[in-house]
Write a structure and sequence with these properties.
The protein has about 450 residues and is an alpha+beta fold. It is about 40% helix and about 15% strand. Strands 1, 2, 3, 6, 11, 12, 13 and 14 form an eight-stranded mixed beta sheet that branches. The protein has a two-stranded antiparallel ribbon with strand order 4-5.
Length: about 450
């Protein structure tokens, strides 16, 4: 990040042109139906499904012919960084990328930030939801948000009702209290029916998002910017008996401890998404974007979604989400057109189209304030409003760090404080560009 300004200097002339067009994000609420500037040919690489985004783009093009030469290519998030870096190096990179903030940290060196002289920070924060602020950095704005995918609580209606449970739990304390009503296990602790997948890591499908939610709800930022604007790790470690980070890890791992009444999950069980779609667990913590997959995987499953539980004593409510935004890769052939395309996608009408196609929430505050009557939107939009995010290392690296931390605690290899301190140190090392991870846990 320290040499990003080199690219900014080259692009000042380009952004001067943008200034003549006006601060492009005004298109998100201006209601203008025309875009007189030329977008031209724009190739987008993105992490959202091709079918959904192609459908959204086709719908937009019907009312805005400037997008006729805009194309979308889906890229696997697992290989996105490698593919983009290689393409940029060979001069064959895309004009725009559509990423979530989980890939922002590793990709920052390949992106060109938008200067605040072209898009003021106040305009950005007033226009987009709080979670979108993850794209703000001292040197500028790294993405124009378009969709939010919050973590949700899915529940098996049949299983809850058969256990005389009228509604999904609204608090973590209430969730813990339901374990004995739902969980079925043998005297040898083999679980045949689970309440929820918590306590382990590798077979909990969205463990990274779940732990992120718990940390954020406890007031632990995981990563925050220091006084100099540099990202630094913060996992809630303190000398206090009630260190918030330790409380999070203790709460999470109790569900995999056979000696606890909250025992409902273990490492021998299959992936939590499979358990839920098979009808073998009552609750599933997963992203809003997973609803279509769950419905298709088991058409006979009677399920619905609800807000993620909160702490009963919490003074504020929050949730973790993946925030998708259009970012400008360095060296693009049509940077001016790419930025105009991003601004067109972020118009209110077009964010509604993207939200409808992807079943996600829009990023605009104005749209989140008035969700459509669709039952999925009614559940997802409020979660997107309260959502937060953090600037993480590469997802695979974060998974390795969190997995090691949880495994150390569950197996008794390290006390919670030590496991948490080690995880914080490893995240900090990644943020500093130093790889201290070994290939074995």
């Amino acid at each position: 990040m320290k040499n990003i300004s080199t690219f900014q200097a080259v692009l000042m002339g380009v952004f001067g042109v943008f200034a003549l067009i006006g601060i492009f994000v005004f298109a998100t609420y201006s209601g203008s139906s025309s875009n007189k500037a030329t977008v031209g040919t724009v190739v987008i690489w993105g992490e959202l499904p091709k079918e959904q985004m192609t459908q959204a783009l086709a719908t937009m093009t019907q009312s805005d012919q400037t997008l006729q030469k805009v194309s979308y290519i889906y890229k696997d998030p697992a290989t996105f960084e490698t593919e983009l870096t290689s393409a940029i190096a060979s001069g064959e990179g895309p004009d725009l990328v559509l990423i979530s903030q989980e890939d922002l940290g590793p990709l920052m060196k390949e992106l060109t930030p938008i200067p605040y002289t072209s898009l003021p920070q106040r305009t950005f924060t007033d226009t987009f939801s709080d979670a979108c602020s993850i794209y703000l950095a001292p040197e500028g704005i790294y993405g124009i948000p378009v969709a939010i995918d919050p973590l949700m609580l899915y529940y098996n209606r049949t299983m809850l009702s058969s256990a005389s449970i009228a509604a999904p739990p609204a608090t973590w304390e209430a969730l813990t209290g339901l374990v004995s009503q739902v969980t079925e296990h043998s005297s040898s602790q083999n679980i045949s029916r689970a309440l929820v997948a918590l306590g382990t890591y590798d077979n909990v499908h969205d463990a990274r998002g779940i732990l992120s939610t718990l940390f954020l709800q406890a007031g632990v930022p995981i990563v925050e910017r220091n006084a100099q604007g540099r990202p630094t790790a913060s996992l809630g470690i303190s000398s206090s008996v009630t260190a918030p980070g330790e409380s999070v890890v203790r709460f999470y791992t109790q569900f995999a401890d056979p000696s606890k009444v909250s025992y409902t999950w273990n490492v021998a069980l299959p992936d939590s998404l499979q358990m839920f779609t098979n009808g073998d667990s009552a609750l599933y913590l997963g992203y809003a974007s997973e609803a279509s997959f769950i419905a298709a995987a088991n058409p006979n499953l009677s399920f619905d979604m609800a807000p993620v539980p909160q702490l009963a004593t919490a003074s504020f409510k929050t949730d973790y989400a993946r925030v998708y935004a259009f970012a400008l890769p360095r060296g693009g052939a049509n940077q001016a057109g790419a930025l105009l395309a991003a601004s067109t996608f972020s118009k209110a009408a077009n964010e509604q189209i993207v939200a409808a196609a992807t079943k996600l929430a829009p990023a605009l505050r104005s749209l989140l304030a008035a969700p459509p009557s669709d039952p999925i939107a009614n559940a997802v939009y409020p979660q997107a409003i309260m959502a937060r995010a953090w600037l993480s290392p590469a997802p695979a690296v974060t998974d390795q760090i969190f997995s090691r931390m949880i495994l150390d605690v569950v197996t008794g290899r390290a006390p919670i404080a030590q496991a948490l301190a080690s995880a914080e140190q490893l995240i900090e090392a990644q943020l500093s560009g130093v790889n201290q991870l070994s290939t074995t846990p």
